[in-house]
Amino acid sequence: MDLSSAFKAYDVRGIVGDSLTDEAAEAIGAAFVDVLGLAGRKVLCGGDMRPSSRGFVSAFSIGASRRGAEVYDLGLISTDELYFASGALDAAGAIFTASHNPSQYNGIKMAKAGAVPISSDSGLLAIRDLAQRYLDGGYPTAERAGNIAPLDVLGDYAAKLRTLIDLDTVRPLKVVVDAGNGMAGLTVPAVLGNELLDGLPLTIVPLYFELDGTFPNHPANPLEPENLLDLRAAVLEHGADIGLAFDGDADRCFVVDETGRAVSPSAITAMIAVREIARAQAQGEAAPTVIHNLITSRAVPEFVEQAGGRPVRTRVGHSFIKARMAEENAVFGGEHSAHYYFRDFYNADTGLLAAMHVLAALGEQDAPLSTLAGKFEPYSASGEINSTVTDADQAIAAVRNSYEPAPGVAFDESDGLTIAAESGHWWFNVRASNTEELLRLNVEANDAATMQSVRDTVLDLIRN
């Protein structure tokens, strides 16, 4: 088996039984310990609800313990639960999950102690290469092998989030939550319900809370509009104030307003940024920094500056955002893909904390979510449009060649290709996915007609 196909820019993602097996997971667990020097130290490991995750967690734990690590098996967890445990316990860890991918996939997200991300620039490739050697030729057992013990962190995780956002005094809200048969079915009741903590003034209407990694109702990928149809219908049926949708490992949250319309992640980023800036300023921070990736709406840095913050633009990807969060001591970071990062949560992304911010913003005032969110969406955006292409570089080159002769446009190739009108009327970015064989397009303009024209032009170049 060649592990290189499963190791991506900032995580591992492969097909179960093909590019990811129990034997591979064991070798990766052993290499994880050796590359990071974790013999004699705590290592955390858990998995999502996919049928293959439990076996992979066990295999990884065996490899890590045989190389001398003291392994704590976290059981069923969301990705942000791993980040919480890694930060709170100051321990390196891994979660087996393929996020929003179909059930035949699984993967691994890894973190160093303190929830510091591991990417291709910070150890992931070294883990891959050593794991390949161990998979091909075996690995030695340490003189002193470690133990494997269970550890439940759900209660502490829920309590941590409750300390960061006070929802006790918001007006009563009816909230439809689509867990997509993913890990939010476990974490939402723990954090927003009364199973572990005191109840909140929230009436939760659950959709697909049963943990089922075969995804019998719809794919756990709320980025695709068709996967929000059930949530939108339920919001209208129940007269709810808001709808929330989580991806499979529950580190991303998407929001639907009371009319059933999806609120853009850029608007959510701007909304939370303004709240986090105000909170940091109240604690004496003069100009709190907010990180946003290059695909978020240009409204995001505008709102950050208006609130007295300092916007910093970076490339797409959770490991890159987290690294920049640490470098800049940023209070918050947001991505167009609905990943939201918080300094108070170890610079890690958590969908539930973002959802709690939106619930607080909504519940602290009387206007409906459509009115509140509309203030943060001054431009027209396409959302992310995916295209399957045989040669991503060739498709991007075709777009570049078409626009290069045009006057009044600026080019930026810091992450994919971004082309913007110098007038400021429109911009778009086209980039290859780091985890899938897709080309992603995002377009924004001052008005819907311009956005649609640019979108259709670029899609024609990509797909023909």
Can you describe this structure?
Pfam families: PGM_PMM_I (PF02878), PGM_PMM_II (PF02879), PGM_PMM_III (PF02880), PGM_PMM_IV (PF00408). One of its GO terms (biological process) is carbohydrate metabolic process. It comes from Paenarthrobacter ureafaciens. Keywords: Isomerase, Magnesium, Metal-binding, Phosphoprotein. By secondary structure, the protein is an alpha/beta fold. It folds into four domains: 150 residues, 3-Layer(aba) Sandwich (Alpha-D-Glucose-1,6-Bisphosphate, Chain A, domain 3); 105 residues, Alpha-D-Glucose-1,6-Bisphosphate, subunit A, domain 3 (Alpha-D-Glucose-1,6-Bisphosphate, Chain A, domain 3), CATH 3.40.120; 110 residues, Alpha-D-Glucose-1,6-Bisphosphate, subunit A, domain 3 (Alpha-D-Glucose-1,6-Bisphosphate, Chain A, domain 3); 84 residues, Alpha-D-phosphohexomutase, C-terminal domain (TATA-Binding Protein), CATH 3.30.310. 36% of the residues lie in helices and 22% in strands. It contains 14 helices and 23 strands. A hairpin with a 5-residue loop joins strand 16 and strand 17.
